[in-house]
Every structure is written in structure tokens, then in C-alpha cells.
């Protein structure tokens, strides 16, 4: 009897069959008894490299280069038994095992690719890879194999079907077109922003000018108010305060109206800009939808000539679209220029209106001051007339004396007779009585004797009578000596 002891290496297992073993016995070391057979197999993973020929749902062929690292799982004895049965008559690098693995991978890849469009495969490469690995792993489980690693390279065109190359050209052209669109849009935003800033500058300048004129008018009005305040009484001061409150209310209402106008203008401009941008985006969406439909038709036709023709048509349409966008940008710029000019004209009109209102307000306040002064003088005269018992002559005489009217009359008469040699008449009421020469009242009596002829002379020359409180002159009592 011949028996021997076998020991497997670190990456190997012993597969023992024969007497005393019902199926297959796996071990790292064992005694090989007579009637038993021992096979050593390696469990280290093996790399399989190949290109899978597949076809999409649109009947588009393509190549899928892939590298799979496949081997048995060392911690799963059931899987090792299945793997041992697979390679027992072959080597792990034999064509049998490679063809088996390749057949499983190609079959599952073709089935999955046939259910997906080329666009879905190209855009969802990661998802496509995961689904391929999942389905391949299910098939390899029956052979005790597991995918340790798998790498899928870039999809490759089949000679005569250059779909991916055209798709790359299309992506490159779309990127270039999008860059040109972005540049044009940036220029448009710059031009619009510049015009908006110029318009705002003109509006603010007009607003400041109007406020300066209003402030100047306010200061002038305040000076007049102080002058009127000194010359008037409490009632005039209260009227001035009420006028200041009304003026503040008017200024606040004016500013609110201006702010509301600016807010409405900004809202309208923003609405129009949003509408224009929305129209542009809608046009872009429709253009891209049309491009997508065109690409789908090109994929269905699978004709290089049709693709070239569509590319030329697309380029022509794009040139037309660029010209249309340039024309629209120019039209939009002209519209903004016109709006800026309109805003400047409105600001100038607003400034003139503010100036006119300020002048009107000043005239109105001046008239109110004169009216208040007239009211105060009327109150003053009413009070004076009441104090003098309703005697209008006494009021008149008092005002004339207070205003220096009699002094002015005397001065004018003196000026009139200056340089002349007038005939002087002396009036007296009679001869001196005996005993009056030494009386202290003689001078006073002489003064009173002069008054009647003086009043008579004034009446004859200027037509004025003496005031009632100075007495009346009896007719025929004055005598000329």
C-alpha cells in the first residue's frame, strides 16, 4: 500500500476524491490514501481582458473594452467546491474557463445594451457598468466565481459607425456655441448696466438740484418769517408755525410721490427684463428640443451623409440665430437708450415743476404775511377806535400826530417860504389889561392868543381844521392888528 502526505501552498487547495469520500474533499493538507486521487488548484484571481461587441436599442453597434478580475472566494467552501469541479479537468488559464467567463459577460452585456438607447448608455456609464456587473455576478455564482474588480473603458465606435466621434464633435460645437452665447450675454448685461447707471446719475442730479432750490426758497421764506415775526404779534407767529407744518407735509408728500414714481419705474424695468430673459430662455429650450429631436433622427438614420447635412443645416441655423440675437441686442440697446432719454426728460420736467411750486409757495407765503400784517393793523385800529370812544376824527388826529404829519407840514411850509420876504401879520385878541405886565400867566395868555390866527392860516393854506380836542375857533373872533 502506497500513501503519501500532500500540503498545498498559501493560494492553493487540495481537491481529493476516491475511496472513503462521497463527493470532493477540500483541504490545505491531507494524507492521500490508496484509491484516492488528489488535484491541486490555485484560487488566486485571474485578469480577463476582452472587447464586447454589443448593440443598442437603436441597432447601433459599439465596442465595450473591459478588464475583469475574477476568482473563487476563499471563505466560501461551497463556492470552492463548485470552482474545483469547474477546473478539475482544466487549468485556470485554459481557454475553456476564459471562454466560459467571456461568454457570460458578453451575453449579459448584449442583453442589457439591447434594452437601452445609445444616449442612455453614454450618459449613464456608471449605472450601465453596475448593472452589467450585477447580472454577470449572478451567472458566475453557479461556478463559484466572484468578480473582485472590473474596469470598463471608454465606449469605442465600430469601424463604419462613427457615432461617438460625431457625438464628441457635437458636444464640442455646443460648448463653443454656448461660450459665444455667454460672451454676448455678458456684453449685453454690461451695456444695460452702464445705461442704467447713467440714467440713475441724471435722476439723482436732478433730484439734488430740485432739493437745493427748495432749501434755498425755504431759507428765504424763513428770513421773511423772522422779519414778520418781529413786526407782528402772537397770532402771526402761530400762523407761521401752521404754515411750516403745512410746508413739511407738502414736502413729505412730494418726496413720497417721487419715491413711488422711481419704485414703479424700477419695477416696470425689472418686469420687462424678466420677460425678455424668459423669452430668450424659452427660445433656447425650443432650440435644444429641436436639436435633441434632430439628434434622435440622426441616430435612427445611421447615415454619415445625413449627419453631415444636418450639421451644415445646424450651423446655418446657428448663424441665423446669432444674427437674430445680435439684432435683438441692438434693438434692446436702442430701447434702453430711448428709455434713458425719456427718464432724463421726466427728471428735467420734475425739476421745473418743483421750481415753479417753490416760487408759487413763496408768493403764497408773502401774501399770507401781508394779510396777517393787515389783520394785525386792523386789530390795532379797532382797539384804538374803541379806546377813543368811536371818534374817527380823534383816531385820525392821533395817527397824524404819532406819524409826525404836523411836523412835516410845518417843515414843508418853512421850506416853501425860505428865501422869500413874506408879510408877517400879528393878531391879538385885544390890548393888554392894566396889571397884566407883571403877571406870570401873561406869556401863556399870549401863546393862546396866537393859536386862533395860526389855525386860521393853516386852514386857508392846506385846508385842514385843528383837532377837536384843541378846541374850536369862533367865527369873527380873530382880528388883525
From TrEMBL:
SUPFAM superfamilies in the cross-refs: Band 7/SPFH domain (SSF117892)
UniProt keyword annotation of Hydrolase present: no
GO CC annotation terms, alphabetical: caveola
Pfam families for this protein: Band_7
Gene3D superfamilies for this protein: Band 7 domain
Keywords for this protein: Cell membrane, Lipoprotein, Membrane
Alphabetical list of InterPro entries matching this protein: Band_7, Band_7/SPFH_dom_sf, Flotillin_fam
Topological relation to the membrane, as annotated: Lipid-anchor
Alphabetized CDD domains for the sequence: SPFH_flotillin
Subcellular localization(s) per the UniProt record: Cell membrane; Membrane, Caveola
Domain called Band: residue spans: 20-187
UniProt similarity note: Belongs to the band 7/mec-2 family. Flotillin subfamily.
Name assigned to this protein: Flotillin-like
